[in-house]
Amino acid sequence: MNVLRRPAVAVLAALTLAVAGCSVGGSDPSAAGGDTSVTFRLWDEQVAKAYKTSFAEFERRNPHVKVDVQLVPWGDYWTKLPTDIAADIYWTNTSNFGLYADNNQLLPIDDDPGWVRSVVSLYTRNGKLWGVPQLWDSIALFYNKDLVTQAGVYPANLAWDPTGAADTFLPAARKLTVPAKQQFGFNAALDSQAVVWDFVGSNGGTWQHGDAFNYADQPKTVQAVQYVVDLINKEHVAPSAADTNTNGDKTLQLFTQGKLALFQSGPYNLKNIQDGATFQWGIAPLLKGPAGRVSVVHGVAAVASAKTKHRDATVQVLKWIGSAEGAKPIAEGGYAFPGVTAAQPAFVDYWKKLGVDVQPFLDASTGNTFPAPVGPRVQAGGTAADPILEQIFLGQVAVGDGLRKAQDAANAATKG
């Protein structure tokens, strides 16, 4: 599951959630009348199954608290949430939580040392933590074992270099590209999380400073984007942006069809590849750049509405999903790396039993990482920039000029 994908009452100091100790001021007005129902909203159908398993055990231990899991598809999630923020607890990503936090719509949460540090950092804003880490993903390199063996390519050793001096990746991508078979070497595309930001980070560039986008101002960023665009339009070792701009799953489809040798992506595609590929495949570290291997690490957090009428019960549920026991069904089902570190071995074991070593994802998460954009209106900024970025990848606009236009549009949109 690709996790990158809105004025309420003020939060009083007495209401600060202390999830680790599960203490909160005040009482739950609905508790005196019997069972309390806490609503939990998310957008992923598969992970919803894991939560239902988890909450069944929670309800067995807490018979007077029921959890109503509400599934809202991704396409409707963010359009419904601003006008229907009735859920007590709901999933959020970094592109959207800042506006809620800045407008006092969330309850702040005390940190727990057992949570994944990178996700805690993503959801810390203005000195406060606003969400309980639920899932996380990093980036690694899936590869088709037959194709790389035939070409004599060793995926774990690949490095890219915009100067060409130490570039072992481009020669390999050329070997792996066979036009007569409609076979491509690599999934270069406007995929920010799996491709673009990782190249930028591994070249020493940045995408954002504070809440403002700054990619056009960074020569290293421009250089990295140029390299990726050239893989498509100059080197032709990646499919046309005319296909990938309009179909975000195009490169995944090509990989599972055996027509793409190297597929840089996250654990959110493990099940897709396991179900779709009929060939032997493996996972290697993501590409190394001049600044080393730098992966985007992103995560989903569960946040609590400041409007909840069931504070005590909400705290109980938050404490549960922030525990190893509560997170275990997500890990045991192989759905995602859980935000609770103690539950991670169950995810590793799930895939190990299937012959898949997910260690490259763990290594990427603990190495040099690149933050996904954050801020109260970062989603609006990305939406404004996307059409221009698409033109860049189509080769219709020069990279430097296009990034400048995209950055200007993005920052204007973030200002409302």
TrEMBL record:
Gene Ontology MF term list:
maltose binding
Q: Does the keyword Signal apply?
A: yes
Spell out the SUPFAM superfamilies in the cross-references. Answer: Periplasmic binding protein-like II (SSF53850)
Q: What domain of life is recorded for the organism?
A: Bacteria
The entry's keywords: Signal, Transport
- CDD domains linked to this entry: PBP2_TMBP_like
TM region positions: none
> One of this protein's Pfam families, by short name?
SBP_bac_1
Signal peptide range in chain numbering: 1-20
Give the GO biological process terms: maltodextrin transmembrane transport; maltose transport
GO cellular component terms? ATP-binding cassette (ABC) transporter complex, substrate-binding subunit-containing
Task: Report the PANTHER family cross-referenced here.
Answer: MALTOSE-BINDING PERIPLASMIC PROTEIN, MALTOSE_MALTODEXTRIN-BINDING PERIPLASMIC PROTEIN
Q: Report the family membership.
A: Belongs to the bacterial solute-binding protein 1 family.
What is the protein's given name? Sugar ABC transporter substrate-binding protein
